[in-house]
Amino acid sequence: MACENLSIGDLAKATSTKVETIRYYERISLLPAPERTAGNYRSYSAAHLGRLSFIRRARDLGFSIEQVRDLLGLSDQRDRPCEAVDAIAREHLAEVKRKIRDLQALRRELDSILSQCSRGTVAECQIIEALSPTATPRGGGIRTPETE
Amino acid sequence: MACENLSIGDLAKATSTKVETIRYYERISLLPAPERTAGNYRSYSAAHLGRLSFIRRARDLGFSIEQVRDLLGLSDQRDRPCEAVDAIAREHLAEVKRKIRDLQALRRELDSILSQCSRGTVAECQIIEALSPTATPRGGGIRTPETE
DNA sequence: TGTGCACCCTGTAGCAACTACAGGGTCAAG
DNA sequence: CTTGACCCTGTAGTTGCTACAGGGTGCACA
Question: Straight-line distance from CA A31 to C1' C24, in Å?
Answer without folding.
Answer: 26
